[in-house]
Amino acid sequence: MLEICSFSLESCLTAQKAGADRVELCGGMFEGGTTPSAGLVSVVRQNLTIKLYVMIRPRGGEFCYSDTEFEVMKADIQVAKDLGADGVVFGILNPDGSVDKRRTAELVNLATPLKVTFHRAFDVANDPFQALEDIIDCGCERILTSGQKNTAIEGIDLLKILVEKSHNRIEIMAGSGVSAQNAQQFLNIGIHALHMTGKGVQESKMVFRKLGVSMASAALTNEFEIYEADFEKCKEVVETLKK
Length: 243
What we know:
Blueprint: E1 2-6, H1 9-18, E2 22-25, H2 38-47, E3 51-55, H3 67-82, E4 87-90, H4 101-111, E5 115-118, H5 128-138, E6 142-145, H6 156-166, E7 171-175, H7 183-188, E8 193-196, E9 199-203, E10 225-229, H8 231-241
Parallel strand pairs: 1-2, 1-8, 2-3, 3-4, 4-5, 5-6, 6-7, 7-8
Antiparallel strand pairs: 9-10
Helix pairs in contact: 1-8, 3-4, 4-5
């Protein structure tokens, strides 16, 4: 299985054309992915025939959410269900870095019959093996993880152990820095699901550019570069998976 993390309809269509099995639809690229707008979810669902999972993340930053943020997450899950998503993606931690089992289980139940991916909040959990068991107990379908490193290839040793300890009770999906150049290494350790952005850069169509005025506060953000899924990058990984 190949899942493409997408931030636009165009990227979703590119992922589908390249042969991906699923899209994880997000907003907030420079925050690592937040909940996309209802309008985007609706239009993507109308145009996509492959599976659509919707990110449920009310803000960037850490994963310990307030009561009001949790209410927003519940409302967003209902919107995703109403708009025809196949699944949702979220992760919640306690202040001590453990999985918030109570809230996670509540959201899993609310999402039913949609499936749930517990995202890379896992990668900043205090104990990956306890987190694995807690997430399984909560009824999630899979864990998206880089093996608690910045990239999945750096975390490949932990990924291998997680696959072994999961005993097929949950799917372990490798994400962060996945490419055609390293996809086979993940397959070799028993990973059967890969997650990637396949990011390419498109130049903005703006001719006039007002210098010194920015709409973004994120450092190193170029507002005249538009990031979309790159067909060839996605297709290369699809071909690796089909070998």
